[in-house]
Amino acid sequence: MNNGIVNWNGDQGFAGIWDEALVEADFATMCNAGVALCYDELSAGLKTDLVSYWHLSNWSGSTGTEIEDRHGSNDATNVNSIAFTGTGLNVECTPVTTFAANLSDLNGTSQSFTLGDVLDVGTGNVSNSIWFKTNAGASQMLMTKIGNATPAAWQLWIDASGQVHFDFEIDASNRYLSFETTTTGFDDNAWHLVTADSNRAGGEPIIMIDGAIEAVSGGTLTGSVSTGDNSNTAALQFGRRDIGASPVFFNGNLSFAAYSLESLTLTDHQNMYNSGVSLCESELLSLHSSTHAKLAGFWDLANWSGSPGTEIEDKIAANDATNTGTILFTGSGLDVECT
Prior knowledge:
This protein is mostly beta strands. The chain is 9% helix and 32% strand. The chain is built from five helices and 26 strands.
């Protein structure tokens, strides 16, 4: 093997790494009669064992940077200021379109999205993610699966000071996590994406907001929650908690909710945050299939010109929500990227 440094003199573009051998048909698909495929145009089969994919090029309407890893998190570094002046290779890429979405607007007293007793956590982890906007200045329920019938439960909510909380209880012995962000003020009438991971083995939940991990404080009532069953018969709900004599609701806008029965990473959260422009489910699949593969459910809770299906349809599984209390989709201020 030649151990010296060998440089390349010429043009390069559209590089990929797979962790399995590609067959002849894969090469023929990527060759595409001499027209390069951007990441969005790769088939689901080609993305199955894909590790990373880089454009190493730009064009009118291209998104992101030339050196961004479109599939994984292995962005390249442009050493010595490579210029993108090469020519002669065309690219096939459907333009990405951003739409102003019409978001759900909940009244805080009687409205919620209810899914019934589905997607129990069991002995594993749960990660849930939802866009929200509120300035209600009171306790607001974001996503919950909690009831009076069993102590096993979890809830994601925001309090009157704008701190985001995640609580997770597994059994009658009060093995229970209760943590909140040290940052306040998320009830500022601006859109935020929160992702909460129960992180049972770690002993405290991981709460990510707007592309960053938030510092949390709190504790465990009794013992460790690394083992034990979180299953219950309560309904999975967005914007409502049913416990005690009176339910607690959400007053404001909710949209683009995702649910996973495994831990979501900061990269997964950042993929969904997308610099503050929400991704529809099909765009998440196209751009970040590794994140999409972890999800057990995805709901738009929104509509826009050309949006597919209904606002309450589960885009991944069959757990459609029920619009309880005739929620209107009159909220605004959050765009969606959807090809």
